[in-house]
Amino acid sequence: MTVDDRLLHIFRDVLDDPNLVLTSATTAADIEEWDSLAHVTLMFLIEQEFGIQFAGEEFARLEDVGALQTLVEAKAGLQH
User: Fold this and answer.
1) What domain range includes position 25?
2) pTM to 2 decimals?
């Protein structure tokens, strides 16, 4: 399973939308269900899934899903 697939699975689960489609340009503003509680839950589950930890406000500063994927890959030592 790719990083994209793993992230999509987490987002679909947290946002309770099995048909959710993400692009690298997707932001929280694009998805109504992506509120502050969902954001924290996403952060926690992504950390668990990839065995990483986000520093301070690192996750909050991400501009879009593409930046998130890049950060996850870098922290987890994975390649795109």
Assistant:
1) 3-76
2) 0.91
